[in-house]
Amino acid sequence: MNIKEIQDLIKFVAKSGVNEVEIEKKDFKLTIKAEAPASKQEKQIIVQAPAAAPVQQAAPAAPAAPVAQTTAPQAEAPAEDDDSKYLTIKSPMIGTFYRSAGPDKDPFVSVGDTIGKGDTVCIIEAMKLFNEIESEISGKIVKVLVDDATPVEYDQPLFLVDPS
Question: pTM value?
C-alpha cells in the first residue's frame, strides 16, 4: 500500500463510524483505530444499559439524580466550612504513609498534639527509603486524614492542623 491508499483508508474509517480496521498482508500489518465521538459513546452506554431494565429506567430519571447530588453537597458543606479554618499538611511524595517509626512504636503525632515547625509528623516510604516528613507549620493536630500503612499520592492531604 502506498501513502495515498493509507490516507484514503483513514478518511473512509473516519466517515464510516467504524472504530477499528486491521489489514494484514505478508510484508506489513496496518491497524487504524478511531475514537468514537462523544454522542456515539453516549449511545453505546445507552445500548449497554438495556441488559437490566430497572437500571435503564432509573438512569434517565432526571429528578432522582439531582436530589442525590443536592443532598451530598449539603452534607459535605458544613464539613468544608469547619475544615476551611484549618491548615493542611500534604504529602511531598508518592509512597506508603506510616504514623510511627515502627509497628511497636508510638505514633509521631496524634489528634490533639501540638506541633511546631520542623517536628516529624510521619514517615513516607518510597522505594525502600523511609523519609521523615517534617511539619512546615505550627499548631494543634485536629484530624489524621490517612490510615497507617496505606499508599499516598503527591500533594494528598495527610493532617489537618489548627494554627491558632
Answer: 0.50
Residue 9 and residue 54 in one domain: yes
pLDDT tens string 28-42? 777 777 665 544 444
Are 105 and 45 contained in the same domain?
Answer: no
Q: Which domain holds residue 52?
A: 3-58
Backbone angles phi, psi at 103, to 5 degrees: -60, -30
Same-domain status, 119 and 156: yes
Rounded Cα distance, 138 and 118, in Å = 9
DSSP 117: T
Residue owning grid cell 493532617 = 159
Q: How many CB atoms lie within 10 A of CB 88?
A: 15
